[in-house]
Specification:
Elements (H helix, E strand, L loop, with lengths): L1 H20 L5 E3 L5 E4 L1 H7 L3 H4 L4 H4 L1 H11 L2
Antiparallel strand pairs: 1-2
Amino acid sequence: MASTNQELASALRMFSRFFDLIHQPLAVINERGEYVYYNQESADLDGYSIERAMGKHMLDVYPGMKEAKVRCFHR
């Protein structure tokens, strides 16, 4: 697992400059649903700072997603 996390961190560092230059909201989550990348466009769109999002579970950042997911499964 540590190797996978190191590889992911290395890849994110390599691509982060590109991600920042595309001027589109972009977020990357790990296998546990935690943000490992969250660009400024995402922060501007969501009103949730990069610092607050990083390392948090996506359902902690977007609690409404859980409710929407549950609704989708019940349809």
